[in-house]
Write a structure and sequence with these properties.
Layout: H1 8-16, E1 20-25, E2 30-38, E3 49-56, E4 68-71, E5 88-92, E6 95-100, H2 116-128
Antiparallel strand pairs: 1-2, 2-3, 3-4, 4-6, 5-6
Length: 130
């Protein structure tokens, strides 16, 4: 079920960057799915784009998201193994997603300032560091 829950600033950012995204709610959680999310750096993974899921916690944007999820699953091109802390699959919104267990320090999230734009930077950093 679609329900708009993102702050307007997040929607403006996503629209301005040309992201194809959906806001989903299953009655228990809010999820932002960005389709055709480009994986960087190119050539590092077995695929070049995924659907990216970010579970939006209650209290967001004062409370930061924790972890992110990819569909289909990503493997490292060299050896075809999973990236570190990304070998677990979880069901969300009727699909099985690859969980990327990446946690940010609560002290690094600035309530009232940070949002999807800054969380996506943390995701890009996690992808580059594999």
């Amino acid at each position: 079920m679609d329900k708009k829950f993102l702050p307007s600033g997040d929607r403006l950012y996503l629209d301005g960057k040309g992201f194809h995204y959906r806001e989903l709610n299953d009655g228990a959680r809010n999820g932002l799915i960005i389709d055709h999310f480009s994986l960087e750096p190119k050539g590092k993974f077995n695929i070049e784009e995924v659907s990216l899921l970010i579970i939006i916690p209650p209290g967001y944007p004062d409370i930061h998201p924790d972890m992110f999820y990819c569909l289909p699953e990503i493997h490292l091109k060299n050896g075809n193994g999973f990236p570190p802390q990304a070998e677990v699959m979880e069901d969300h919104f009727g699909q099985k997603w690859q969980r990327w267990s990446r946690h940010i320090s609560p002290d690094s999230w600035r309530p009232g300032i940070d949002g999807i734009f800054s969380y996506l930077q943390k995701i890009y950093t996690a992808l580059r560091s594999c």
